[in-house]
Amino acid sequence: MKLYIDSADVKQISRINEYYPISGVTTNPSIIVRENRPFIELLKEIRQVIGHEKELFVQLIGDSAEEMIEEAKFINGKLAGNVVVKIPVTEEGIKAIRLLDSEKIPTLATTIYTSFQALIAAVAGAKYVAPYVNRIDNLTGNGVKVVSEINKLFNTYQLPTEILAASFKNVQQVHDVCLSGAKGATVGTELIEKFIAFPATLQDVKVFKDEWQTLYRTRTIIY
Q: Which residue from 21, 115, 164, 181 lies 20 to 30 Å from 219 (Cα-Cα)?
């Protein structure tokens, strides 16, 4: 499983990146605007935190394929390291994915609500597709089922595109998409911190330490 931080908050990214096995950071226009900073400066700071090997995702906002391609080249010219551009699955977006694939610029197809949208994006050459799990649920759909259908289609047609599931409200949704074939998930920092949180774990650790200290009069194994 690849785990990505869905945030542009540098402080939070730094903390999660320090403690968890992170593959990169995903952003979108709303996340970046929330930080109220010059966006290239912000993205460069995120790059400094995560290093050059981990992927940094930046969403394009152009209306036409030509505008998206121009933006993709601009972003790649401004940012060092492993950059992936996010493109919505509109007609212009699919065209842009095709053209960028021919230029070896990796893309993620975003705003995906159906398995067939994901299939078209994958055939066009997207490296990743991002189905919106919780948003699908909110539209009386089944986000986990859509992920499962995408996985089945990709396996049927032997497509190399990876599912990077997005939009979660709880840990159970992330767990379920992992079981449904998603290769990765992009998750907010607060939810990532809940992945390993379980009261019994901390209780057990305390018991171990207390029993050790009772006999050896120390709370460490170093002597």
A: 21
First to last CA, the chain: 39
Residue with tokens 């190399």: 160
Q: Give the model's confidence band at 171: pLDDT under 50 very low, under 70 low, under 90 confident, else very high.
A: very high
SS3 assignment, position 194: coil
Residue 163 phi/psi, 5-degree rounding, is -85, 120
Each residue of 193-202: pLDDT tens digit?
A: 999 999 999 9
**Top-level class of domain 2-197:** alpha beta
Q: Strand (E) positions, 52-157? A: 55-59, 83-88, 107-112, 128-131
194 has catalytic annotation: no
Q: Which two tokens stand for residue 103?
A: 């230029």
- pTM here is 0.96
Residues paired with residue 2 on neighbouring β-strands, in sequence order? 184
Q: Which of 73, 86, 104, 145 is catalytic?
A: 86
What is residue 62's three-state secondary structure? coil
